[in-house]
Write a structure and sequence with these properties.
This is Alpha/beta fold hydrolase. One of its GO terms (molecular function) is hydrolase activity. With 274 residues, this protein is of the alpha/beta class. It has a single domain, classed as Rossmann fold (3-Layer(aba) Sandwich). It is built from ten helices and eight strands. Strand 3, helix 1 and strand 4 form a beta-alpha-beta unit.
């Protein structure tokens, strides 16, 4: 692990392989996660890339500001931009899951020249209807208050949400590890993250604002109806896109890691030399 300072903020960075013959893959985790949610994937990804996992702002061993304004999308995009240049990891593919997918999408649209390809798992482009966005901001605020008042109670309800149910039997070891990763997060930082970069606070992207023309892989779980529909719509945002539905719930990397790794390896192999 290396702490890398960008914009007066420390990011925990984990480089898992440095094969000069392979491209890099920067992996962005979801809300209440950290780099460890991808640990069981990285060895399978060695055949196609050099995986680099990080702890996003407020998570894991990275800095944990409690001011929601520091989690603003533009500040986090700039953090990722500077982090990539500081690490000098080129050529580079970008991968993100859920919250990390939203940040990956925004970063790729803002700085498309950085990335050879984009990989999004269970990702939304945001909420385009202003009334629905307002309602989601209210929901995010209520969740933030619950996180601050009783984090373990919030977490127990969160993990039982229908969104995370899978058509496949759970791997109890991976599930237990995931729960412990959630427990390790700082409640004040999680509340600030919700307020500053929740789905309701994020400026939605539209196909008219898309600035990324590189090869894009979209993945959604077969049991995740909401995100299957969202990703169907997302295909219109890209000129070079492949959409696949993998037998899983929302957390494909947890529910069906081998299938997800195979898709990522294939995507990188097919597009590394473009």
């Amino acid at each position: 692990m290396e702490l890398v300072e960008v914009n007066n903020t420390n990011y925990a960075v984990y480089v898992h392989q440095q094969d000069e013959n392979l491209p890099w893959l920067l992996m962005l985790h979801g809300f209440m996660g950290d780099h460890r949610v991808f640990e069981h994937l990285v060895e399978e990804l060695f055949e196609s890339c050099n995986p680099v996992t990080i702890d996003l702002l407020g998570h894991g061993k990275s800095s944990k500001p409690t001011d929601p304004k520091r989690y603003n999308e533009h500040k986090q995009i700039n953090d990722i931009y500077r982090l990539v240049h500081t690490l000098n990891i080129f050529p580079l593919f970008l991968y993100g899951y859920s919250m990390g997918g939203r940040l990956a999408l925004k970063t790729a649209f803002s700085t498309p020249e950085l990335f050879k390809g984009l990989i999004l798992e269970s990702t939304t482009n945001g909420i385009t209807d202003e009334q629905q966005r307002k309602e989601r901001r209210h929901t995010d605020e209520q969740r933030a208050k619950q996180v601050e008042s009783n984090y373990e109670d919030f977490l127990s309800k969160w993990e039982e949400a229908a969104l995370f149910q899978s058509p496949l039997p759970a791997d109890e070891i991976l599930l237990s590890n995931y729960h412990n990763i959630h427990l390790d997060q700082d409640p004040q930082a999680m509340a600030a993250s919700l307020r500053g970069f929740g789905t309701g606070s994020m400026t939605p992207e539209t196909k008219y604002s898309s600035g990324f023309d590189g090869p894009t892989l979209l993945m959604a779980g077969s049991g995740d109806e909401k995100y299957r529909k969202i990703n169907d719509r997302l295909t219109y945002f890209f000129s070079d896109v492949h959409l696949c539905f993998i037998e899983a719930g929302h957390r494909i990397h947890l529910d069906n890691p081998s299938a997800l790794s195979n898709e990522i390896n294939h995507h990188i192999d097919q597009n590394s030399f473009l």
